[in-house]
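Bumping with the actual sequence this time:
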Amino acid sequence: MKAMFIVYNQAYNEEIVDLLAAHGQRGFTRWGNVEGKGGFNGFPRFGSHAWPEMNHALLVVTEDDKVAPLLSALEAKDKEAPDLGLRAFVWGIESFY
């Protein structure tokens, strides 16, 4: 099993959930109004007057074989509008119940 942490501009909210569903991923945990700034070239997302946009984040636990197709779909979405910002990180799950 793998965990995917996906952080994205709030404008993508339903699109990311729809993308997961299209890949057969039912479960996730979502956080709204996540503040941050990309490490490479991202714009701040602070929900302030100067930087009004916000991010959302998802934690998805999925089977290993679903990770590569999901990452490819997320990367393609990011390339469509790179200024919006979308990043995904993956790590292994040792156990769960």
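The tokens above came from a reply further down the thread. The chain has a mean pLDDT of 93.
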